[in-house]
């Protein structure tokens, strides 16, 4: 079934070799165990075979060479060390969404979900939230999630580790029944050597090298031990070179299994159907995550309120200045010193208020995007391995986060404009504020797709927001040489400029011009630059989602 030849994994170009010329063959329609002391390279071996880790050497499945993970799609599934599913979904929902991402045919899906629930013994727990399951139930759900695509072969990393004996037996029973009734192949990394008699074929890995393959009896004979529990003591008696050479020179024939033909499941649904499924699941998870939606709602409503609080004292004068530009205004301003000072103060208040709106929108953008992908990266990697398209995933994240950002930008514009009676072209202001929030959301989503840790992505997003004010050069003067190095990348500058330009035909704009003659970008240019920021963010999201980020 699955086999590898001279497979090696190095950590980085000059790093240590953590898998060294491993050669192994796993048995089809059987329970295969992979054992070895902790840290010996079991996970590395299976991940290298599945194309999850870059490696040198050959991998084959049913006699066909495998070059990348996607070559195994529809034939093999992988259950990583820690079962992963969204904690806020019920067992039924987790399985249903996994099926929707993996299987096209509605009748097959309805039948399969019932079969899986019964097989993994979670039928009566189908309405329980994943987060409320016990360790054993969680592992069984993990298995159920691997079964949705009906793969011929399943690789399970420590599917029984850390479980009580009863739960361990339950899981092994599920695997054995699947082997006997459906000829499924399992390759399981296990730690409990007392359970080896339940397995048909055993692979021993030691210090990154495969040093034995065979049945339990042959293992006991080969290592000259009374039972498998003595294996690790025996391994310690010699160094790795001894064991490597002994296995190389041994006449044990591992090519004993007749090759089973590959069976490939039908292709998964197309990217549009997968995007739709992911959007539905994201909306449900958003609704269930009370803390997150309360925070999002809180900042969406609270931030515009904050802006108007800061505007409060100046609102009466603001209203006086906000009418359309009328003839004689400039003349009057230049004659009347008092009026001129008032106008300049108003212009500086408005500058601050616009900047404040824009900065708060970038903060909302960082909240929308920074944790979105990195926070569920392992789940995504697992679903991608099972057939989820990276493009569908990236699109669903962009659509969902941008929808939230559009609402936030619109609400900020409407609320502040109404309370402060800001003049200017409403559609331009809405466009600029919405795009400010959406583009920052996309950039932070990009960080979330590029970095493997949600904390790193959040930290970078917070720094980016923190630098908006000083690097925009609006309130604090930037050194001349830096102005046009920084500004093209500073969301807040274009948000501010675009908004200010929407007031071109008003007294406020003229009042600002009394104080400053600096160039202000037009609303059109600002919208174009913010649009480019969004495109950059979207490219980062698509590129980041294409990369492999397994733990
Ligand atoms: N990215 C990495 N960088 C450096 N060392 C690594 C990396 N990944 C794994 N290793 C090292 O390679 C060795 C094999 O790791 P692996 O996870 O394959 O072991 P394992 O046998 O599955 O361990 P366990 O049974 O404890 O899960 C370990 O010493 C581990 O520290």
UniProtKB/TrEMBL annotation:
Q: Which InterPro entries match?
A: AAA+_ATPase (IPR003593), ABC2_TM (IPR013525), ABC_transporter-like_ATP-bd (IPR003439), ABC_transporter-like_CS (IPR017871), ABCG_transporters (IPR050352), P-loop_NTPase (IPR027417)
Provide one Gene Ontology cellular component: membrane
Q: How is it placed in the membrane, per its record?
A: Multi-pass membrane protein
* Protein localization: Membrane
Pfam families, per the entry: ABC2_membrane, ABC_tran
As one GO molecular function, the record gives: ATP hydrolysis activity
Range of residues in the leader sequence: none
Annotated TM spans? 291-312, 346-364, 385-411, 431-451, 458-478, 519-545
* Domain (ABC transporter) ranges: 2-232
Keywords, A to Z, come to: ATP-binding, Membrane, Nucleotide-binding, Transmembrane, Transmembrane helix, Transport
Database matches in PANTHER family: ABC TRANSPORTER G FAMILY MEMBER 28 (PTHR48041), PROTEIN SCARLET (PTHR48041:SF139)
The name this protein goes by in its record? ABC transporter
């Amino acid at each position: 079934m699955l086999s590898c030849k001279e497979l090696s994994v190095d950590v980085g170009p000059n790093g240590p070799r953590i898998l060294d010329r491993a050669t192994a063959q796993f048995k089809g329609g059987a329970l295969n165990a992979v054992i070895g002391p902790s840290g010996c390279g079991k996970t590395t071996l299976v991940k290298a075979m599945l194309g999850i880790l870059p490696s040198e050497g050959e991998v084959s499945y049913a006699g066909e060479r495998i070059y990348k993970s996607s070559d195994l799609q529809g034939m093999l599934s992988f259950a990583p060390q820690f079962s992963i599913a969204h904690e806020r979904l019920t067992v039924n929902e987790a399985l249903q969404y996994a099926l929707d991402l993996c299987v096209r045919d509605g009748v097959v899906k309805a039948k399969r979900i019932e079969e899986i629930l019964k097989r993994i013994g979670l039928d009566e727990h189908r309405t329980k939230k994943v987060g409320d399951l016990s360790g054993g139930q969680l592992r069984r759900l993990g298995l159920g999630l691997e079964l949705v695509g009906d793969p011929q072969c399943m690789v399970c990393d420590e599917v029984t580790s850390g479980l009580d004996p009863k739960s361990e037996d339950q899981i092994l029973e599920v695997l054995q029944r699947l082997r006997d009734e459906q000829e499924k192949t399992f390759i399981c990394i296990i730690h409990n050597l007392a359970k080896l008699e339940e397995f048909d074929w055993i692979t021993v890995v030691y210090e990154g090298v495969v040093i034995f393959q065979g049945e339990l009896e042959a293992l006991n004979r080969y290592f000259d031990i009374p039972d498998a529990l003595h294996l690790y003591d025996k391994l310690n008696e010699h160094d790795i070179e001894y064991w490597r050479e002994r296995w190389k020179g041994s006449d044990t024939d591992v090519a004993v299994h007749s090759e089973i033909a590959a069976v490939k499941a039908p292709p998964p649904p197309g990217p549009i159907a997968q995007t739709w499924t992911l959007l539905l699941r994201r909306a449900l998870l958003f609704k269930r995550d009370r803390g997150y939606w309360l925070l999002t709602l809180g900042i969406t409503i609270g931030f515009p309120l904050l802006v108007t609080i800061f505007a409060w004292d100046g609102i009466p004068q603001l209203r006086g200045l906000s009418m359309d530009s009328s003839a004689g205004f400039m003349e009057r301003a230049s004659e009347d010193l008092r009026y001129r000072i008032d106008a300049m103060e108003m212009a500086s208040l408005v500058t601050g208020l616009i900047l404040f709106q824009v900065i708060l929108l970038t903060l909302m953008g960082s909240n929308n995007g920074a944790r979105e992908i990195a926070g569920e990266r392992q789940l995504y990697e697992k679903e991608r391995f099972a057939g989820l398209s990276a493009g569908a995933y990236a699109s669903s994240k962009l659509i969902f986060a941008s929808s939230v950002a559009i609402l936030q930008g619109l609400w900020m514009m409407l609320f502040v404009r109404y309370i402060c009676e800001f003049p200017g072209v409403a559609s331009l202001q809405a466009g600029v504020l919405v795009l400010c929030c959406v583009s920052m959301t996309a950039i932070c989503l990009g960080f979330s797709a590029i970095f493997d840790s949600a904390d790193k992505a959040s930290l970078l997003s917070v720094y980016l927001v923190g630098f908006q004010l000083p690097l925009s050069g609006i309130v604090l003067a930037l050194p001349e040489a830096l102005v046009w190095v920084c500004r093209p990348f500073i969301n807040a500058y274009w948000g501010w400029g675009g908004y200010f330009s929407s007031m071109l035909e008003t007294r406020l704009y003229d009042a600002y011009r009394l104080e400053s003659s600096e160039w202000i970008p037009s609303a059109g240019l600002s919208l174009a630059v913010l649009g480019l920021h969004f495109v950059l963010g979207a490219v980062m999201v698509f590129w980041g989602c294409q990369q492999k980020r397994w733990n």
